[in-house]
Amino acid sequence: MDQSIGDIILMGLHWDTMLLVFLGSVGGMLIGILPGLTATMGIALLVSLTYGLSVVNAFAIMIGLWIGSIFGASRSAILINIPGTPASIATSFDGYPLSKEGHAGHAIGLATVASFAGNLIGVVVLAIAIFPMLEFALRFGSFEFFLLAFVGLTMISSISPGSFIKGLLSGSLGFLVAMVGIDPMTGVLRFTYGSVSLTTGVSFIPVMIGLFGISEVLISIGEKYPKLIAEKIGRVIPSFSTIKKHSWLMAETGLLGTIIGALPGVGGEVACLMGYDYAKRRVKHPTRPFGKGADEGIIAPETANNAAIGGAIIPMLTLGIPGDAVTAVLLGAFIIHGMQPGPLLLVYHKEFFYLIITFIFLAGIFMLVFGLSTVRLLSKISVIPEYILMPIIVVLCVIGSFALQCSFADVHIAFAFGILGYLLRRFGFPLGPLVIGIILGPIADSNLRRSVMLGGGNFFTELLGRPISVVLLIVLILSILSTSAKSKKLFRKAWSLFKGIKVYLRKE
Amino acid sequence: MKRVEGQEYQMDKKQKREVGVGTVFLAFGVYIFYEALTLRGKESLAHSGAFFPLIIGSIIILLSIVLTIKPIGQALSRAKKAPVVEEPTQSLWKVGIGLIILIAYPILVPHTGFLLTTFSFLAVLMYFMKRLRREEKLRLSAQVKEIVLILFISFVVAFFVKILFEDLFRIPLP
Q: Which of A276, A340, A356, A432 is deepest in the core (most CB within 10 A)?
């Protein structure tokens, strides 16, 4: 598409597209506020429901929903101590104590402003880094893509809740699910068991709807949820002096969040926890002790988790590798709309990048204004009882999985994966690696076989002769070793020894 | 780990569960490995559709062996362990009944129509989940009020969903 950047941005600022970004943002905020609903679930439902829209409008509403859900999740974390999405876990550490003292409005105001700042920083870094990253990504061959798929899986397995082994098992299941259907290289039918509907593989969106929607409903049936009471609000908009005082912290945690978001398989959850940890180390004199309502304890995680959005888009657009579960679903959306994710996506559809930046920026502004002006109204929504909410989610899941191909087979797949998701969660297996495995499975499979064919009898010689492959191999080994307690002990001993040698040499 | 006098190597519930799960995955991995072998054609292994499933099957087998052995090793270990915190367990019968209600919904929709089935499903599941959460027995008038409220919400939601998706967004409903 031969258009100037200005024309592309104007396309994104068309009134109907802006309206969709706004509606997506508001919907996302409602999803974020309600515990039990996640951005991944919302976007999975939207992918099938927006199938009839143009790809630009479909992504406008999905990006809006993504941004809105991260904004909204902080509200339930602050008001009822239950983060709306995992990316706001750390916000509750200081947000809820402030809320209990009647300063919920102050906490929400800080979270909203910090979220907007993170959003802005993420977009700026994305705009600067994307094309150099693309140049780098175009040097990736089949060896590198195969290794990157495993790096993404081991990284998300190492940071997911539950053990590393369970994360890898979950990811392996994801790889297996991706292999169902016709093998693209040989035409052999794999794991279809004679079913015609499985010949084309397992539809990704019903799988997501089942894993994140149906399984959540089953979990809520089995568990007893606490009675939800929202705290009083008080003053909302933070003063200019407060914002100015914390501007450096926002800048630093925004940059940190963007870098973390850019790592394959690592997303907002890690960014928010690392942002909080960074603030604890960096800020010597917080407004209050951390854990007791420090402003910094709200600002840092919220800036980081929103900045991670911009970061997560970098590997998604340049490598076709998801940065987190949400970008994994967005990659599925690209495929459904006929666009092949990977380095060539931006080569042939450069306009997409500028549109995504426009949507992220617009959604941030909408959330800043809408979020600050509707705090009292939205706080009532966070306490809707789950016995009303969960049945409605099931209806939406059935509609969402049916709408894609007007097929009940997809509804059955959604329910089957809902039961699988419930069982996995019940036994402590994280779902993130499963999702990543489904997306990365075809990449790992085809690139591994291509690498073996290219390498002939010298696969390992060929692999070790490529600098990027060697770096990825080292990262893979380190990410596996970093999960082992014995390895950590060994590293600490080696580090102490190294420091001892340095001191000795200086004295000499 | 629980230490009972005279019975040092006792596994707690969580460890037994881990062994069970590991065993299931081991059996699954072996099955996948076997199924993958049947996919191989005349071409070499590395070029066939069986290659990656064989690798994944092997990985699952190895990981499940580790998952199974780890709790046994912990139970046999003489080192002092921190007390095991049992996570809150889910009530299986509640989940089972809920699952039956959930599965009945897509099965009945083609036979009884979207609106009626959705209304019935919402009412039944909302009432079931409300009953699960109720901490004390309610008087008859309060119970009737609760049922009327649930029926009203179910009707409004079913109707609203039909209008919104079918008429406004033109999205096909099951």
A: A432
